[in-house]
Amino acid sequence: MAITYSEVEDYRKQLYTDIESQLRGLEDELASGRDQERIPIYLTKWRVKSINSIYLKTKRKNKTSLDEFTDIGGLRILCMFEQGLAPVHEYLVGILFDKGYRLLEFKVFNWRDENFTSALKAQVDKLFKGYGWGLKDQQGSYKSIHY
């Protein structure tokens, strides 16, 4: 059965405050790492998907349950230089573990350096089990890591 716009609206309302609080908390932890521990984070920005965005994704992906979504909210972390990604990754993964988060998925986009991606995965493997893993190539040169 198709998910209605009203159902999406209610679902997002129920989750928004909790997701916002968690993302703000993560952002604060990352800012602290930047300021006190010199973690090379240039910028952070969080967001919760809009009702329209969630609704359209239910149609595009033929979702039959809103519980299938794992990306209602997100936190973007920007580094100025690639060499900053490893310490940021290690710091973030540690925060997620310390806060008791469950890692559902870990994907690396447009990275062809096998040593680098193996090191990232090894760091996650130390703390988390049973998550989805993937190396993805997409058009363009934008490199990213998704948790």
Residue share in β-strands: 15-25%
Can you tell me the residue ranges where pLDDT is under 50 for at least 5 consecutive residues? none
Total count of helical runs of at least 4 residues = 4
Helix content: 40-55%
Protein structure class: alpha+beta
As laid out across the biggest beta sheet, the strand order is 4-3-5
Shape: globular
Termini gap:
30 Å
Provide tags for this entry:
single chain; alpha+beta; 2 domains; 3-stranded mixed β-sheet; two-stranded antiparallel ribbon; 5 strands
How does this model look, in words?
The chain has 147 residues and is of the alpha+beta class. It folds into 2 domains: 1-78, no CATH class; 80-147. It contains 4 helices and 5 strands, in the order αβαβαβαββ. The strands form 2 sheets. Strands 4-3-5 form a 3-stranded mixed sheet, with no helix packed on it. It has a two-stranded antiparallel sheet with strand order 1-2. Helix 1 packs across helix 2 (51-60), helix 1 crosses helix 3 (85-98) and helix 3 packs parallel to helix 4 (114-127). The protein is globular.
